[in-house]
Hints:
Elements: H1 22-30, H2 36-48, E1 51-55, H3 56-63, H4 73-83, E2 91-95, E3 103-106, H5 108-117, E4 122-129
Parallel strand pairs: 2-4
Antiparallel strand pairs: 1-4, 2-3
Helix pairs in contact: 1-2, 3-5, 4-5
Amino acid sequence: xxxxxxxxxxxxxxxxxxxxxxxxxxxxxxxxxxxxxxxxxxxxxxxxxxxxxxxxxxxxxxxxxxxxxxxxxxxxxxxxxxxxxxxxxxxxxxxxxxxxxxxxxxxxxxxxxxxxxxxxxxxxxxxxxxx
Length: 131
């Protein structure tokens, strides 16, 4: 399969800092995988984490996640935001022990939207390791 040609988009369509509401959303998701106390501790570590950048295609592969289609309502909403000149919030990630799938605590739809724009574009992320 031929590599998808990137769309014409603004050179940078990402915010530097996550939106405040992303942290409670990450906590809600993480509380399904960990105890409430462990989830809360991971969220605090994500708040303090230094920003890194990774390609959308690599995040999907590391998380063993399916690429959601552009027709997905949330992906479509993020694509419309970018088209309107709005910037997307960085994604929040938890790195598990070696061999396990990367946990996307918040931002799966944004990763998919970014992939559809340019799979090689680097996405700002906050990453913390499982203790």
